[in-house]
Amino acid sequence: MQGGHILCRKDRPRKSSALMKFDPYTLVVALDNEGRAEGELYIDDGESFESQKGAFIRRRFKFLSSPSSSASADRENNLSLVSDDLNTAPTKQTTAFAKTMKDVRVEKIVMIGVPKEWVGIKEVKVIEEGEKERRVDFMWKGAEKGRASSAVVRDPGVGMDV
């Protein structure tokens, strides 16, 4: 996976994709050299043509890292996951579909290529729609046996409905 991208996936094994419809997502964040990444997610019902009438969800995820001082607390304040709705012209079908997906959320964020300077960081900021802001736990893992360093954010509280 190339740095600077976010891949959205469902990690729970099921016998069919229809059974995965309401499963949570995992975001795999491959950081670029500046500690940033971006990706989009499109969801529809996977069964009908209602998406042509607006019954879909389209979200953008960004992980941002701003340069800061060497103090761990300062670095912590500059790490953010931003989630935005990209559906610019919602219809009543958009709203109805979003209601059916109200319980679907991001369950976990796995970050790859995390710089060793982030070792002491304990939290990252999650921002939804530019206003809902909260802090969530951040767990750093060092590189081992040919694998890149990584970090995990469990249950960041990001929903798919708006």
Describe this structure in words.
The longest helix is centred in the middle third of the chain and has 9 residues, at 92-100. A five-stranded mixed beta sheet has the order 1-2-6-10-9, with no helix packed on it. A five-stranded mixed beta sheet has the order 3-4-5-7-8. It is mostly beta strands and 162 residues long. Residues 69-74 have low confidence and may be disordered. It has helices at 72-76, 92-100; strands spanning 5-9, 25-30, 37-43, 57-65, 79-85, 105-112, 123-128, 132-137, 139-141, 150-159. The two termini are 29 Å apart. The protein is built from two helices and ten strands, in the order ββββαβαβββββ.
List strands and helices in order, with pairings.
Layout: E1 5-9, E2 25-30, E3 37-43, E4 57-65, H1 72-76, E5 79-85, H2 92-100, E6 105-112, E7 123-128, E8 132-137, E9 139-141, E10 150-159
Strand residue content: 35-45%
Instruction: Give me the number of helical elements.
Output: 2
Q: How would you classify the helix and strand content by structural class?
A: mainly beta
In round numbers, the mean pLDDT is 89
Query: Major β-sheet, in short?
Result: 5 strands, mixed
